[in-house]
Design brief:
With 493 residues, the chain is mostly helical. The protein folds into four domains: 114 residues, Orthogonal Bundle (Arc Repressor Mutant, subunit A); 43 residues; 158 residues, no CATH class; 93 residues, no CATH class. Helix content is 59%, strand content 9%. It has 18 helices and six strands. The strands form two sheets. Strands 1-3-2 form a three-stranded antiparallel sheet. The chain has a three-stranded antiparallel sheet with strand order 4-6-5. Strand 2 and strand 3 form a beta hairpin. Helix 11 crosses helix 13 and helix 15 runs antiparallel to helix 18. It starts with a helix and ends with a helix.
Length: 493
């Protein structure tokens, strides 16, 4: 890529790694991110754990550099670093968890790797890289060769080299790599291993972007399922057929081979015991596990594409099935309703099309609602003793008892008057009970008022005073023939 002025200006504005290197707290950011996400190889950490680690880091730095070196809290720094506009940390919620998790972005790996390259090295190996270049060139030239004669000649050359080496070993001539050669190759192995881990993070980010685009398409999709399937499968196939997709799949298949993993584990254990390399890189011990975890996270992102597509298809299918079932149930209900009906000649009739005419003068005029005037002036407090006495003297009339008496009276006759009821069942609660008789209603009888005639209802109150009330003639007439003596007695009880 050509690094001209305009491209560099654009990169400085758009690159998250560049913004990280130019940040005010870049040393804090790089050291903390390197310690958590690079050295420890963490690819997913909960919010509480990350805040605790950052709080310990800030406390140690403030104790050593001054109490106001980093004045903000760990939560505030983390919220700023996880801002999507910065692009340094990815905040997300894993399935089944309500606590946010964090993961470093590709920009963090690039920035940390570039800063590491600025450090001075006491030993710079070149031989191993030159040998790697020759081996890669031979693999390319030999792998692209389609002429059987040429490929056979190359295989013969390799076999002759191996035979000569076997003869020297049998003769006791063993070529052993010296310390510098071992350190050279180990340095290249560690650098390549960490670069590979960073590349896997970038591959995962690319697949995640594809998953985000798929979610957006599904959310906004308004066409048929077939059209969406064509677009999604074409995108999925284009990723699988790309150089990045084929390379990742080959790497994943190689890593999943049990014999390869066992061989890799044995080789790493053997190299760590060599005295020539000095202190081995502690990250290399867990590198196979980190590779496998990173590859599995990438594969899970790919699986999410299939899950999103399957969920979309299932939702569409359930909605269509639900609509079909509703139509079928409606047809069955109509068929059952017409099963016993006599066959009739069905004639479809359509009302003639005619405009609905409503004249303006046919509409009623607006009638304002009369508001009752309420005068709240002159209100005085009542007597407390009177209010208490009136409360305790309140009378409750049980309408069920009165209704039972009417039913019992109607058990032997078709109607009964109020005066007859009062004669048979004297009023026990005075005027309140009389008023209750006038408001009774029941399914077994109806109340008939004759306003043209009056009758006197007499009773004796609690003070032994005889009282008389003139009321219209009231008659209770039986409406249900099911009233019998046994029923009325039971209900009265």
């Amino acid at each position: 890529m050509e690094l001209d002025y305009d491209r560099l200006v654009s990169m400085r504005r758009q690159s998250a790694a560049w913004r990280l290197l130019a940040a005010t707290n870049a040393p804090l950011l790089l050291s903390f991110f390197n310690k958590v996400f690079v050295e420890h190889g963490i690819r997913s950490i909960t919010s509480s754990d990350l805040i605790e680690r950052l709080d310990d880091e800030l406390f140690a730095l403030n104790e050593r550099l001054g109490p106001r070196t980093f004045p903000q809290s760990a939560e505030a720094y983390l919220a700023d670093w996880a801002d999507p506009a910065r692009g340094w940390l990815r905040k997300y919620y894993p399935p089944g968890s309500d606590e946010p998790h964090y993961d470093a972005t590709v920009a963090v790996d690039k920035a940390v790797s570039w800063v590491r390259s600025l450090q001075e090295r006491s030993f710079v190996g070149t031989e191993s890289r030159l040998n790697t270049i020759f081996d890669l060139l031979r693999q390319m030239a030999f792998g692209a060769e389609s002429d059987p004669t040429t490929r056979l000649a190359e295989l013969m050359r390799r076999r002759n080299d191996i035979d000569r080496e076997i003869e020297r070993v049998e003769a006791g001539e063993v070529d052993v790599l010296d310390g510098s050669a071992l350190r050279d190759r180990y340095q290249q192995v560690t650098a390549t291993a960490h670069d590979l881990l960073a590349d896997l993070r970038e591959v995962e980010a690319n697949f995640r972007e594809l998953d985000r685009e798929l979610r957006r398409r599904i959310a906004l999709w308004g066409g048929s399922k077939g059209e969406l399937l064509d677009e999604v499968l074409e995108s999925r196939e284009s990723i699988a057929r790309s150089d990045q997709g084929r390379s990742f799949q080959a790497f994943y298949d190689f890593l999943l081979t049990p014999s390869r993993r066992e061989e890799l584990k044995k080789l790493l254990a053997a190299v760590e015991t060599m005295e020539a390399i000095g202190e081995p890189d502690p990250r290399m011990r867990r590198m196979p596990r980190d590779w496998l975890e990173a590859a599995e996270r990438t594969q899970s992102t790919v699986r999410q594409l299939s899950e999103q597509l399957r969920r979309f298809l299932d939702d569409r299918m359930r909605a269509e099935d639900r609509r079909v079932m509703e139509l079928m149930r409606g047809i069955e209900a109509h068929a059952l309703a017409l099963r016993d009906a006599a066959p009739v000649e069905l004639v479809a009739q359509i009302d003639p099309a005619a405009p609905a005419i409503q004249l303006l003068m046919e509409r009623p005029l607006y009638a304002p609602v009369a508001k009752a005037a309420i005068d709240s002036t002159g209100i005085e407090a009542g007597d407390d003793e009177f209010a208490a006495d009136a409360l305790f003297e309140a009378v409750h009339v049980d309408p069920a008892r009165l209704t039972a008496g009417i039913r019992q009276a109607l058990g032997t006759r078709s109607q009964v008057s109020l005066s007859e009821l009062v004669h048979d069942y004297p009023l026990e609660q005075g005027l309140a009970e009389l008023v209750a008789y006038l408001t009774l209603s029941d399914d077994h009888f109806t109340t008939v008022f004759d306003d043209s005639r009056q009758e006197d209802i007499t009773w004796v109150g609690g003070d032994s005073v005889r009282r008389v009330a003139s009321v219209p003639v009231v008659t209770y007439a039986r409406t249900s023939p099911s009233i019998a003596w046994a029923d009325t007695d039971t209900e009265a009880q």
